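Quick start: load a record and inspect it. Here is UDP-N-acetylmuramoyl-tripeptide--D-alanyl-D-alanine ligase:
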Amino acid sequence: MVLNQKQKTKQLEEKKLNNFSLYELKKAPFLRGFFFIFDFMNIQDLHSAFLANPSISTDTRKIKENDIFFALKGDNFNGNTYAQKALEKGASMVVIDEEEFYVDDRTILVNDVLKSLQLLANFHRKQCKAQVISLTGSNGKTTTKELINAVLSKAYKTIATKGNLNNHIGVPLTLLTIQPDTEIAIVEMGANHLKEIEFLCKIAEPDFGYITNFGKAHLEGFGGVEGVIKGKSELYDYLTSNNKSIFLNADDPIQKNKLNTYTKRFGFSSEDPKYYTIQLLDAQPFVNLLVEDINIETNLIGAYNFSNCCAAIIMAKYFNVEMHEIKEALEEYTPDNNRSQIINTNGHYIILDAYNANPSSMKVALENFNSLEKDRKILILGDMFELGESAKEEHQSISDLAKSLNFEQVILVGENFYLTNNHFIKLRSFHDLKAYLKENSLPSKSSILIKGSRGMALERVLDLI
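Running the structure step on this input writes:
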């Protein structure tokens, strides 16, 4: 008997209500071309399919054999249109939310691909034995995450956020890399507006958390510094309301004001003996610290990286990692990916810190650079993004700071820095910087700090000097 569309839809709904498996639904002859509504009631079925092929892709350019392709959407792309291509390139299944792009029985049609990815990640997290450590903050998240992973992996099977995949897509993708034998998952969380960290916590359900700091980052989305504090604190709010534990910097003035509101807390301090004591010995140029009478010499430049090291140490101590393993991990770690990298090229000593920038990180970077015992110090600074109405004021403030520190030469790049009031070399774009450096060589054997927001991509300067 040939069924009309109404009869097909009714049968499909009956199968959903009867909780048929995903595979039974996929094999049903009437499914082809019709919309299967996927929801939390059958998330277990999708998870079973994921366990059979535990690798997710959201980009057909990077797809691997047997990946499950989630057809996400963005402002300028629609992943549904790539479903056919994903299968051709070896995907085991594709998850889409527009029925016109249904391919064959390897296609799963859902209401919302992104929501399905998030639900799957949360379900997977619940099934795993791994303890989850989440961290957020205005500056230092990625470095701190890598340091935590370095020390904990000495004693445990760990996974950690890759790169800076720390948003509403990146967090689910990170959770889905947790393996059956994973013991600790370190999940970085980024945010540029209120309630975002709260939402990410509902997906990751962390057991522990740490906030690196509260700085002038994403001011446009948070509506100012107070919004930043409130937004980042959503991590600690979640943990305390769920009787979970927090790690904290007891020397941070903002966190210090809230110490009494956190009951299950484990802190570090160089000032307060009530907390685990770690001392900064120097940072000329690398962070050298003292803990339990053991000297640890890192490859991290700048005193601002001291607290990042401390966070890794306090977590390692909590999880009973041996002190010699902590020392080994911190001394082995070398930053990369444009984060405070030390590069010696053509006689120049270069600090490449072009991973990102905001007023807080820019300030400490300039102050640290000024404190280094180096000659011929040159700044190449790029615009700081997402500052909204504060952009003019904050760029002028950094310009004024640079002037007060008396560097030999300052080159400012970007529309915001171009409008600042000073006598520095000001260029509207990287294209203008490239032209300038072709005509004007930097003084030989200079010490150069290169810093700007990710969108400025100032690492390209290396090819010019």
